[in-house]
Protein 1
Amino acid sequence: MRGNNCVKALKKGVRILGIDDSPFTKTDSHVLVVGVVERNGTVEGVLSTVVERDGDDATERILEMVSRSRFLSQVKAIMLNSIMMGGFNVVDISALHEKTGKPIIAVVRRKPDMEQVKKALSNVCCAEEKMAKIKRAGKVYRFGRLYAQLAGIKQKEAGEILGRYRGVPEAVRLAHIIAGGIIRGESRGKA
C-alpha cells in the first residue's frame, strides 16, 4: 500500500502491528522481540521472535514473525519502537516494507544523536554495515513529541497517523509493556 491510499486505508478500526524489544543485559546473547496487533485499543494478537543482541538478524526475524502470522493480510501498518532491536541489531525498514508491502513507521521519543550512535557502534561488530542501514532508513522526521523514520509512507501521511496518538502509538506501547513483563516479571518504563 503506497502513497495517498495509505491514510485512507488507515481509518479508524484498522489493525496496526506495533513491535518492540524486551529489556536485556550485556550478558544476554539473544533478546525477545514482541509484536502486538491492535485495533481501536483492543489487543487482537501477540507475536514474538528472538534476535541476537547487537547482531544482524532483526530484519529477517521480524519478517519471519510477521510473515508466519495470520494477521499479515489484515495489518495496515507496522510501527517499530526504533530501527534498532536488541541493542545495535538494526532493522532495514526499507527491506521490511518491500517484503511485507506494509508502510513502516519507526518511532522514538528523542531525536537520535548520530555522533553518539557512531561512537557507540564502534564497540560492536560490523559497525560500517550497521551505519549503512541506519543511513538507508532515511531522514528522521519530527511529529509533535515523537520522531520517526519512514518506509513506504510519506511524511504527511505518517503525520496524520501519528497525530491520532498523544505519544507513542498504542500498539508499540503495548509491545513494550508485554516484552518487559515477560522478561522482568513486571513491566516498567515507557516505550
Protein 2
Amino acid sequence: MGAISLINLTKTYRNGRGVRDLTLNIESGQVFGLLGPNGSGKSTAMKLMTGLLHPDEGTVSIFDADVQNNREQALIHVGSMIEAPSLHPYLTARQNLSLIQNLSTDCLTTRIDHVLALVRLTSYTNDKVSSFSMGMKQRLGLAMALLPNPDLLILDEPTNGLDIEGVAEFRDIIKGQVKAGKTILLSSHIADEVERICTDVAIISEGKLKCTANVDKLLEKYESVEQFYLDFIRAEGGLAS
C-alpha cells in the first residue's frame, strides 16, 4: 500500500524558491530520506504533505486520502515534526504532551509516559520547556510526533541539536518504529545520516526532485551515499570538481 503519493506538486514563493513538479511515491514500511542542501525545498515539501501549505499545483495523498480536500482523514494516522517543534515554553514537557493527548480521541494518557521514556526525557517530565536545551526541545518534538502512535512519521531534520548519543538513540527509536510496522519519511542535509537510517533516498535540489534510489543498491556501486550524492551533484553542475 502506498503511504505517500505526490503528483506534480508545485509551490512557489515570491522569491522564486519552493518546489516544482515533485512526483514521488513512498510505500508503506519504507524509511525514506529526502537528501539535499539547506534551502533545497525539503521543508516546503513536508509542509505540503501535512497540509501546512496549499500547493499552487499538483496533489498530495496519504494512505490514498487527498490532503488538500480531505485533510483530517489523510492525517489521522500521521505524526510529524516540521522545522522547529511548536512548543509552549512556560508549560512542562508533560503539559505540552497533554495538550496533544487531549485532542486525540484514542490516545491514552499512559502514552505520555511511554514516549517521554522513549526519548529519554523522563527525568524532565515536570520541567518547563523554557529551561530546555535545543537538543531537549528536539527530543520533546519527537515525543509529540510519536504520541498518537502514528502509522506514518514525517520528520524534518530530526537530529538537529542532538549530540552524538542523542543521534544514536534517535536511530534506535526509528529502528523500533520500523519493527512495529511504521513508515518513516525524514529529511536531512547529511548523507551519512540517511545511509545509516534509510532504506531509500531521494535527492532534492533547487526545489526539484533529481533522483530516487534504494540505499542498499547504491552501496553496491558506491563507497557511501555521500559519495553518490557528491558525484551526482557534480554531474548536475552543482559542485566544482
Protein 3
Amino acid sequence: MEFKLDRVIEVLSRTPAVLSSMLGGLSDAWVHGNYGDKTFSPFDVVGHLIHGERTDWMPRARIILEHGESRTFDAFDRYAMFEENEGKTIGDLLAAFESLRRANVDQLRALNLSAKQLELKGTHPRLGGVTMKELIAMWVVHDLNHIGQIAKAMAFQFGEHVGPWHEHTSILRK
C-alpha cells in the first residue's frame, strides 16, 4: 500500500474507539488479565499507548522538523505506565487516550507534511537514523500491534476452556 497521511489518519483516529469498544465497561478480570509472565494486560497496553501519545510520536516528529539528525530522540520508557496509572480505572485510561490521540492527530494534520518533509531524518537512540515517514508508519503499526496484543491477552483468559480447539487457535500460542 502506498504511504499517504490520509491513510495514516484513518487508523490513528479510529484506535481510541476500537479500544473503547473492546474494553469499555469490562470487568477487571478481562482488563487486568495477561498471557504470561512479563506480558502486558489490556490495562497496561492502554497505559503504554497513553505514555506514547505524551512522549513519543509527536514529540519525535517535532524533533525531526526542528533539529533533524542533530538531536537524538529522548529514550522511551516502555514501562512508565505502571507507575503513571496506579489507582486509575480502564475508563480513566480510555478517556485520556482518546483526548491525547485526538490532539495528536489534529497536530499531525496541521503539520501538512510534504513529501520532502516525510524523508527528513531523525536519530533514534537505539536504531539510529529514521525518517519522518518511518516514524509515522510505525505509529500505525504500533497501534495495530497493541490491538492484537490486547486481543491475545483477552483470549488467554478463556484459553484453558476451549478444549480440543486450542490447537486451531494461533492467538493462544505463546
